[in-house]
Structure formats: C-alpha cells, structure tokens
C-alpha cells in the first residue's frame, strides 16, 4: 500500500490531492480536519447526495461592513462554508477588498481605489453594512486580500469576485499566505484563456460563470470541466435554466446560483424565500438543482437548510404587510401625496399608494410627510404589545412616524434608522407599547411633516411584551 506522502506527491490537481488526504497505516493519524478542509471536500463533491452549500455575499454585511474582516469572521461563524469578497488593485499593486472602483460608497475616502497606495487605503474607515454616503463610519479598516485569506485559512473557502483581471497577483497572494486551496477564482472568460490559467496553476480552484450568451462553454471545457458553474438567468425560459442544461452541469460539478437580486435567478430571491421558500431557495434547489446558493441572508438560509421554513411570526405576534392597508378612499383609510403608484410593485388599481418590489419584498415606498396608512389587525389575546416595523433606507435621517391605535392619542415620533440600502430590510423596534384587548383593532401609521421622509415599509409586527 502506498504511503500518504507517496499518494500526495503524485497528485496532479487539487481535486486529486483533496481525495488523497485520508490517513494510512504507514503514516499514522492525519491532522485534525478543520472547517476549511470540510468546505473544500464538500465543494469538490458533486455526487447525488451532496449537501447544499451556503456562500455569504460580501461577507456577513448585516453584522459588519461589507468586505471587512469582521464580516468574513461573522459569515463563517453563522455557518457559511464560502465567503464572497470583491477585489481591486491598489496603486502599488496590492490586492485589497473593495467592490466598487471608487471609495465613496463604503469608506470615508474619495476617488479611485487604483489611485491610492495600500497604506492610504488602510488608513480609511469602512461604513456600516452596505455603506452609502450617509451610512455611519466604523472603526474597521480596508483589508488586503492577504488579511482576508489568513482569516479564511482554517474557516472555509473564499469566492474571489472581480479577481480574474488581476489573477496572477491574486494567485501570488494565495501562495504567499498558504491559502491556494481556499480561493475560488471565477470568470466568464474565453475557455482557452481559462485553460491556460489552470494549466499554469493546476492547484487553483476555479468556477465558470455561464448565462445564455456563453452557455456553450460548458461543453467546450470537455473532460476538463471546473468543479462548479455559476449559472445566471433572469428568465425561467433561458437556456441555462432548462432541465437538460442544468442536468449536464450537475453531472460533473456543483451548480452555483445567486439569490440576492431578481435578475440573478428569475426572481427566486432571498426576500421571496423569507415569504415562502418555495418561491426562492426551495425552487432553486428543487427545480434548478442548486448545490451552492449565494445569499445576503446567511442565517436564514442555514436555518432553512437545516429545519425548513424561516421568518415565522413569533408566538403570539401578529404581522401585517405594508401593502395590506385597509381598503377605502384617499382621506378615509389612507392618504398619499402623489398621484398614482410611483413604484414598480402591485399597487391597487385606482389608488395612489406607492408600492415597490425590492427583489421580492413588496413594500410601501416613496414615503413622504403628511402621508398615512390605516390597518386592521386581529389580536389573539389581551395583553401589552409593542410595535416593530421592517423597514429599509439608505438615508440619515430616514424619517419618522407616529402610531395611533383605535383613534387614541398618537405616539411620539419613532425614528427610522438607516439600513444602508433600499433593499436592505431590517426589523426595527419602535419603543411604542399599547394595552390591547383580544379582538379587532385599527392601527394608523402617520408620517411627520417638515422632516425628511425617504424609507420603505415591508411589514408591521405587533409582538406581546414578555414580563
């Protein structure tokens, strides 16, 4: 029987080496397997029983700035096996983590990333979450790719987005940090170009992006297909969304599908999944054969994969969708200052309330001062209830509202906090508590006048106060 060392020495690809890690009697016990070992083994497994893997888009940006070291740590801690980061090159040729080519959205800097040295970039502070010019600054700094790969070395894999153009510089970082097996390169480059890179770096992990424009690339790879394909489709009728195409991909590798935005997977999004997984993650897995899902909702996806439906209404609570305001005329059940529906969502015919569809989250939008909405709600039992609202806004201040129950006195102003993007919804407490008897009640949300108002309302939630 060959020794472990002999088998490792004759490996010619990362895949083969990964399969040769089992201990043998000649060498004794292998080193303990860590999370990155398990993630690599899983990524290379495309068998019929391969578990669905979770990839965190820009890290866990709901808990730390996107593309930051704490966002990477939080993503892995929350169960992601893969973390996606974006890469730009500094003026002095150092790969750093940054999605945009410019600095304004995510840092307190200005100008192009490529015009700043790595020392200058490291001095900048990152903004909360998805950033935006009105998002608060944090104490966290712009990391280099080397910093990020060291964080991932024992934790999991890293999807190296926007890295293909600087692939040799990026590969140099992976070799320097001992993380070649952690980094997943990605492109939609011509197949000969990809073959040349993989021939130079036979230990590199690679994933090819395909849509209807380059669907033929899958067959062009022949027997040297990469271990995964990122499949992008904005319509269920697209060729790459067809059963035959996906079966062909699934037969030799993993099917990676992004669930963050409508255009990545024909509307089967994170937000749709939070309403009904059959509209999102469930459909991606059951119909399209996804074995890697990249998400903005790491914890919710991990919970769904382990336990089923997520985002359930808490025990004893009542949830009211923002667009489900009481039927009636303007001035009676609602008031909107704009004529017609300014949003792109399913507004009611003949009514002017603005309804938007933010990648599956149908929400009241274009909020303006003096507007108000009335809701009817059935309370299951008598008790004290507090109001929460799932909202989004990239602005500071975003706005304020007041709550009135059953025509009683209005509450004080409730401040809506910046969530860093229109599509970044967060359930925020109001601090307003009311004693409600069992039965039907009327709630009115009124927007203050003469203060900035620019936020979106997904749903309201009355939750019992636990004593």
TrEMBL record:
GO terms for cellular component: plasma membrane. One of its GO terms (biological process) is N-acylethanolamine metabolic process. Pfam families: CBM_6 (PF03422), DUF4996 (PF16387), GDPD (PF03009). The keyword Transmembrane does not apply. Keywords: Signal. Residues 52-160 form the GP-PDE domain. Residues 331-341 have a biased composition (Basic and acidic residues). SUPFAM superfamilies: Galactose-binding domain-like (SSF49785), PLC-like phosphodiesterases (SSF51695). Residues 1-22 form the signal peptide. GO terms for molecular function: carbohydrate binding; glycerophosphodiester phosphodiesterase activity. PROSITE patterns: CBM6, GP_PDE. InterPro entries: CBM6 (IPR005084), DUF4996 (IPR032160), Galactose-bd-like_sf (IPR008979), GP_PDE_dom (IPR030395), PLC-like_Pdiesterase_TIM-brl (IPR017946). This is Glycerophosphodiester phosphodiesterase. Residues 327-349 are annotated as: Disordered. Residues 318-463 form the CBM6 domain. It comes from the Bacteria. PANTHER family: GLYCEROPHOSPHODIESTER PHOSPHODIESTERASE 1.
